[in-house]
Amino acid sequence: MLDVEKIRQDFQMLNFGIIYLDNAATSLTPEPVIRKMLEFYHEYRANVERGVHRLSQRASEEYEEARAKVGDFINAESENEIIMTRNATEAINLVANGLGWKKGDKIVTSLIEHHSNFIVWIRLKKRYGVDVEILRPNKQGLFNINDFEKAIDDKTRLVAITHVSNVLGVITPVEKIAKIAHEHDAHLLVDGAQSVPHFKVDVRKIGCDYLAFSGHKMLGPTGVGVLYARNELLDAMEPLSIGGGTISDVGLNYYKLAEGPIKFEAGTPPIAEAIGLGAAIDYLKGVQLDNIETHERELVKKMYRGLVNVPSVKVYGPEKPEERTGIISFNVGDLNPHDVALALDVSADVMVRSGHHCCLPLMKELLKRREGTVRASLYLYNTEEEVEKLVSTVDEIARSLA
Ligand SMILES: Cc1ncc(COP(=O)(O)O)c(C=O)c1O
Questions:
Q1: Domain 32-285 carries which CATH code?
Q2: How close is the Cα of 133 to the center of ligand 1, in Å?
Q3: CA of 88 to the centre of ligand 1 (A)
Q4: Catalytic sites, residue numbers
Q5: Which of 118, 149, 191, 237 is a Cys-bridge partner for 162, taking CB atoms 3.0 to 4.6 Å apart?
């Protein structure tokens, strides 16, 4: 069980009377994470992997320790499989731009992807004539696994799919998809931006080849993300940028890239941010992901039940709680979602996201709402009272329409 009241004391922003339900966009940061980053700035700020002086040694150790914590958190085989990026978007772009593509290669993706895991593939189609097949789930966002069986063939090189939809909260059966992909020697990239922060993600259990996620959605700072790539795949992938830190030798007419993750981390990396991400992982482990998952599941049930019972509110995504995480998208009649979000902020201090949530194909093709939805998303520090406040305020807004 989570001690939510105790946890809330670690988040100073929660003292300002706000109800923060925009966790799918970015989470809040607890004091221990901020303190860990301050420690870097106060005590040992220096560049990493270069200097021999003690500050640089300490910074390098802390940076590498953070990498090891990330690896352990997702059960990677080794920390060498962890590449620090700026965010999930950069991690996905690294795969898209790092592999050599040719006409006739096939990529399978889906209609519920965030633009960061969608337009990168469309660009490859334009650039190289890669064939991109886009799978459609049903109205609730649930996929028929047979559609993956049919779409993934021997020409398929990559399946790129989200683990959890940032609009519908629906969970994708990535383990089954990994099996199908591997039967055809294709690789699986999982967009874990909305899963890694909320429940245990085990890359070896899933059997994925790549996993992308962002530190700022999991209590860490902005500016750092992760690409997990299976060891055997690192050599074949080209870095997005090259320069300082990425080489093992340079001559007048040649350069030799380093091996392992540093090949992909050109220039000074986000040092404080990576160290902060390590501290965020310590924090999540301390409270235990299983507890976070249970807590969010209880709250989301309440939120779902509350919202579906409000007249003129349309709730999207799966009906069964076990098929979704703590993200709920909805609309109030024909009201523009931005107006609803603004009313929630102004009248009840409730922060929610509104709009297309970087998922225009989903909005246009599946929900048929170009202007998007209102989205409330939970995390470990949210409470039942906050969910009740959301529901009662949405109810007031809906009544004002009648
Ligand atoms: C499912 C999903 N993928 C990718 C991203 C991109 O994350 P970032 O903006 O941190 O790169 C997001 C962000 O909302 C997301 O929800």
A1: 3.40.640.10
A2: 21
A3: 6
A4: 358
A5: 191
